[in-house]
Each structure stands twice: as structure tokens, then as C-alpha cells.
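Priority: medium. Attachment 1 of 2:
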């Protein structure tokens, strides 16, 4: 058994998903956003979603943790 996990590159969204034991499949099903887009947002810290995606994702994550803010998921400049 391999005791070492390959460290995956994660965005703040990806870190949030891991912390709350959710995966990209859950987010895809909950939001209706394409799997490819969700996976990109979870893994690429430089990827910024469109406003409609932000609303959908925020609605989904707040159903798990109501205290979550946009700044917990992305750096909005």
C-alpha cells in the first residue's frame, strides 16, 4: 500500500470541497455546471468563474456551510 498521496494542485474551491468531504461530482450535480468546468475551478487557482457560476456554486456550498463567503472560494480582485 502506498502511504504517499500525490499532492494535487487545488484552488480555494478545491480545498473547501476536500474540507467538507465533497467532490466535484457532487458540485456538478448540485449546480448543473459542466463537470469539466467544475474540475477546472477546483484545481486551477488562477481560474475565475463567471458570475452565474459563482451564484450557483455559492448557493450549493451554503447548503453545506452557511457561513461560506465568496472570498473563501476565490480571490476576487
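Attachment 2 of 2:
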Amino acid at each position: 500500500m502506498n502511504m504517499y498521496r500525490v499532492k494535487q494542485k487545488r484552488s480555494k474551491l478545491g480545498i473547501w470541497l476536500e474540507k467538507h468531504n465533497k467532490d466535484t461530482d457532487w458540485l456538478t450535480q448540485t449546480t448543473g455546471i459542466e463537470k469539466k468546468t467544475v474540475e477546472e475551478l477546483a484545481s486551477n487557482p488562477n481560474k475565475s468563474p463567471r458570475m452565474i457560476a459563482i451564484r450557483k456554486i455559492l448557493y450549493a456550498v451554503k447548503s453545506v456551510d452557511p457561513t461560506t463567503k465568496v472570498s473563501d472560494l476565490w480571490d476576487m480582485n
